Amino acid sequence: MTLVRCTEAARTFGQGDQAVVAVHGSTCAVEPGARIAITGSSGSGKSTLLHLLAGLETPTGGAVEWPELGNSAAERSRDIAVVFQGPSLLPALTVAENVGLAAVLTGVSETEADRRAAAAMETVGVAMLTDQLADTLSGGQAQRVAIARAIALRPRLVLADEPTGQLDGETGAHVLDVLMAAVAETGAALVVTTHDPAVAGRLGEHWQMNDGRLVVPAREGVR
Ligand SMILES: Nc1ncnc2c1ncn2[C@@H]1O[C@H](COP(=O)(O)OP(=O)(O)OP(=O)(O)O)[C@@H](O)[C@H]1O
């Protein structure tokens, strides 16, 4: 039932003297329903590990597999949604268009995408922003719309890279509430990278990145 499994997966950028080992051989697994925080200092490799789990980066060592999701990028694009840290919306499109577009790109019909977009906007509390252009949103609103876009895919796994990193404490806490409620409603597993102990404390499992080396508590590791 494993959604994604890393077996000694590593990622090095550059070559020779310039090589940076962002992630050393790392072994971990994400099961359905998981709530995982990946913590670590800046530059410790959290985003790179998240990108490996998403299939956005190819490992330079070891392997990443998606036993429950299929190993082709096309199959994964329907089942894995990524929420990025910074602005990721298309500024000239409305909120509804942004939320529906990702679903359309994975092959969902426009009617179904509109339906899913409306439901997702309702879930995260941005229905009143439907016709607003994305570049007029506040940071917190934009991040809630990015979460709506993610869940409109009906993913089985949501990977969020510092989803509250650019928000003030109160707004960030509210965005995390929205994200947790959205995955609870859709049944998706959730992996979040964060610097913030308060965010990590809200997730069930806690993985630590130390200078590119992943520490997964034994009890919560590979099953
Ligand atoms: N595309 C890239 N090319 C070269 N080096 C990279 C690339 N992406 C990441 N790195 C390097 O890999 C290391 C890990 O970066 P990564 O972004 O994964 O860390 P992080 O823990 O997510 O940091 P932050 O919390 O600041 O976002 C850093 O030394 C970074 O400079």
From TrEMBL:
Keywords attached to this entry: ATP-binding, Nucleotide-binding
Residue ranges of domain ABC transporter in the record: 4-222
InterPro entries in alphabetical order: AAA+_ATPase (IPR003593), ABC_transporter-like_ATP-bd (IPR003439), ABC_transporter-like_CS (IPR017871), ABC_transpr_LolD-like (IPR015854), P-loop_NTPase (IPR027417)
UniProt keyword annotation of ATP-binding present: yes
One Pfam family it belongs to: ABC_tran
GO terms for MF: ATP binding
PANTHER family reported in the protein's UniProt record: ABC TRANSPORTER RELATED, IMPORT ATP-BINDING PROTEIN
Protein name: ABC transport system ATP-binding protein
Species whose genome carries this gene: Kribbella aluminosa
Lineage: Bacteria, Bacillati, Actinomycetota, Actinomycetes, Propionibacteriales
